[in-house]
Structure formats: structure tokens, C-alpha cells
Write a structure and sequence with these properties.
- The chain is an alpha+beta fold and 368 residues long.
- The protein contains nine helices and 19 strands.
- A six-stranded mixed sheet has the order 4-3-2-1-5-6. A three-stranded antiparallel sheet has the order 7-10-11.
- α3 packs parallel to α4 (110-119), α6 (141-162) packs across α7 and α8 (247-265) runs antiparallel to α9.
């Protein structure tokens, strides 16, 4: 992996130099992870004039399940536990003779930015913007492999839950059980707060589980994700509790399923982000479900659960191959419940079989 990290830093350095800055300070945790490997919390990465440095408070943890920093990087440990790695990294950049320093203004607080400026008054500070986030959009096969394993873990956890007795159990209890099962199957932890929604809560995006108990005839919608070696994926499914779904449940499910399929089928290299959103949204609109739809149909995943690209009506840009995204349309009917279907996929060209589905739990409307 050392060569991979070095190549990523080299690509970022080229971008920095093209914009007039020879050095850069990376402080956003996911970006530090992308360029330097797993590092202690709060670490900062300096792409310096003479050498690159990982500035940490405390040494790396040998017991970490998420890995260790790039072994080719020199680690600069701050004495004590009170120092600010970003401020210290800026000071080291000045000591290397740098004249300018690109920083991630979108991540730094005003106070932190002022602290950096105060220790390096002669350095010209520029904004790195979203340069690292842009590099992170297209994943290499090692990253996709981590996402694929995370998806397998999430599928396993969900599949086991569906084999258990659900009636009478609370949303909160089911969510906690799912998160325990994720860890049992090898996940670093949940990728985000697990959502379990029943009855009138079903179909709500990012619903926080309550003490409502599962009842016969309910829609049950579940959204969970696993983190594996830092990479996060997600899956969402909706089921019916009881022997057979009601007609309105079948109708609503079929519409959302058709919308999700339309979104998945539009995931081709070169497709506009907003066209993917439109493909799914048009199905829901045509069926009369145009009120209260989610703001977006999907989003990128990786070291964070919500990354670029955003598959939304006003999103600008086009998909590349090897970009993992979610497709997650849903409809919620106030007082009745609703349906969400969510998959993680990787954009692939048609010659390679089209979009690769990572989350494979059945999308059939099961009566549990």
C-alpha cells in the first residue's frame, strides 16, 4: 500500500504546484487517511518542500483493526497531549523553507486558521479546496475490495435478522442487534447510525429508531452499513410483517422498486449525475408520488458514508468508471408508512458487465 499512498500524494502535489503552492496541509480526517493510511485521531499530514510528514498526538496504535500509517512516512509526534497537529505541521512547513501553504479551509475552524497564521506569518496561505475529495471519487480495486467485503458483512447481518422473530420487538432493539451482528462478522463498526423503522415510520430517510414495537401488517424498513478497513457501504430494504402484504403495500413497493431499478440501470460511465436522479425520480413522479421525495437519489461512498458525487436534480458532473454510489429512492406516506430500497453499486462500463451490485440481499417483497 505504500506505493499507493505515495502515488496519491504525488497526484495531489501536482495539483498544488499547478495552482502555485509547493506545500499543502491536510487536516480533514478522511483525507489524511486517504493519503497516509490509518493514523491516530486528529493527525495532520504535511506535503512539505523537502519531505512529507505525518504529525500526530501520540504514536500509532499497534492494536488498531483499521491498519497503520504508511510506513514510508516520517511521523512527527507532538510532546504532550495538548498540541494541535495542524498548527505544528504549518510550523514545520515554514522550517522547511516553504513560501506558501495550501490548507483545507472548508475543514479548518476560524480559530484554527488564525492559530496557523499566527505561527507562520510569513507563509502565504492558500485554499486547497476539495482537491483531495476530488481525487477520492474514483476508487482503485483495493478500495472497491474493502467496500465489497463491507457489503458482504452488511448482507450477512441483515439476513440473520430476517430469520429471527420480529413481532413485539422495538425498533431500537433491532437496530442494536444489527450493529452487534456487523461487528461479529468482522466489521470495524457500523458505517452510520442504523435505521430501523416500522409501521408509520417506515420509509423515512435516516429515521432514528424508537421504542415502537413491530406489529402484524407493518412495513419494516431497515438501512444499515458496515465499515471495513475504513471504507463504508450501505444497504436498505423494506419488508412486510405478516402472512401477506396489503394491496396498497404491494403497489407502493412495486413503484419504488421500479424507480430503484431505473436508477441502477442508468449508472454508466459518462452519465450525468442529475440524469441518474431523474431516471429514478420520473418513475415516482409518473405514479403520483411527487410530494416529499428525498432531495437526492444517491451519493458516493468510501472513507465517508456520504461522499461525492451527489445524485441530485441540480448536481453537475458525470460519472466515471470505478465510482461507488448508492441508489436509494423512497416514498413515505404520512401516517401509513413507506418503502425505501437502497443498494451500493460500482459504476462499470457495459463491456465489463455494467454496474457491479455490492449489496445482494433480495429485493423481493418478503412477508416476515
Amino acid at each position: 500500500m505504500s506505493e499507493v499512498y505515495a502515488t496519491r500524494r504525488s497526484r495531489l502535489r501536482d495539483r498544488c504546484q499547478a495552482s502555485g503552492s509547493a506545500t499543502a496541509l491536510i487536516s480533514r480526517p478522511a483525507n489524511v487517511r486517504y493519503l497516509a493510511g490509518a493514523a491516530p485521531q486528529g493527525s495532520a499530514l504535511l506535503l512539505g518542500k523537502t519531505e512529507d510528514l505525518l504529525v500526530c498526538v501520540g504514536p500509532p496504535d499497534d492494536r488498531s483493526t483499521e491498519g497503520r500509517p504508511d510506513e514510508t512516512l516520517r511521523i512527527h509526534n507532538l510532546p504532550g497531549a495538548e498540541g494541535d497537529p495542524a498548527v505544528a505541521a504549518a510550523d514545520l512547513a515554514a522550517a522547511q523553507g516553504g513560501e506558501s501553504l495550501a490548507v483545507e479551509e472548508h475543514h479548518l475552524t476560524v480559530a484554527r486558521h488564525r492559530a496557523i497564521r499566527s505561527v507562520v506569518p510569513r507563509l502565504r496561505l492558500t485554499d486547497l479546496g476539495g482537491a483531495v475529495e476530488q481525487l477520492r471519487v474514483v476508487k482503485d480495486e483495493e478500495e472497491i475490495s474493502c467496500l465489497r467485503i463491507g457489503a458482504e458483512i452488511a448482507d450477512q447481518a441483515l439476513g440473520e435478522l430476517l430469520e429471527s422473530i420480529l413481532v413485539g420487538r422495538t425498533e431500537r432493539h433491532l437496530a442494536l442487534e444489527l450493529e452487534r451482528r456487523l461487528v461479529d462478522h468482522g466489521a470495524d463498526g457500523p458505517a452510520f447510525r442504523t435505521s430501523v423503522a416500522t409501521g408509520p415510520n417506515a420509509g423515512r430517510r435516516a429515521h432514528r429508531p424508537t421504542d415502537r414495537r413491530v406489529e402484524e401488517g407493518d412495513f419494516l424498513s431497515v438501512c444499515l452499513g458496515a465499515t471495513y478497513r475504513g471504507y463504508r457501504c450501505e444497504i436498505g430494504r423494506t419488508f412486510v410483517i405478516g402472512t401477506s402484504p396489503a394491496d396498497w403495500q404491494i403497489e407502493l413497493y412495486d413503484v419504488v422498486f421500479a424507480a430503484q431499478r431505473a436508477g441502477r440501470e442508468s449508472l454508466t460511465p459518462g452519465a450525468a449525475y442529475r440524469d441518474v436522479d431523474r431516471a429514478a425520480r420520473q418513475v415516482l413522479d409518473s405514479a403520483g408520488y411527487h410530494e416529499g421525495l428525498p432531495a437526492l437519489t444517491g451519493h458516493g461512498v468510501g472513507l465517508e458514508i456520504d461522499e461525492d458525487p451527489q445524485l441530485a436534480p441540480a448536481a453537475m458532473g458525470k460519472l466515471d468508471a470505478c465510482v461507488p454510489v448508492t441508489v436509494e429512492p423512497g416514498v413515505h406516506l404520512p401516517g401509513r408508512g413507506g418503502v425505501r430500497i437502497d443498494d451500493t453499486l460500482v459504476v462499470r462500463p457495459e463491456a465489463d458487465g455494467g454496474p457491479e451490485l455490492l449489496t445482494i440481499t433480495t429485493k423481493e417483497l418478503l412477508a416476515l
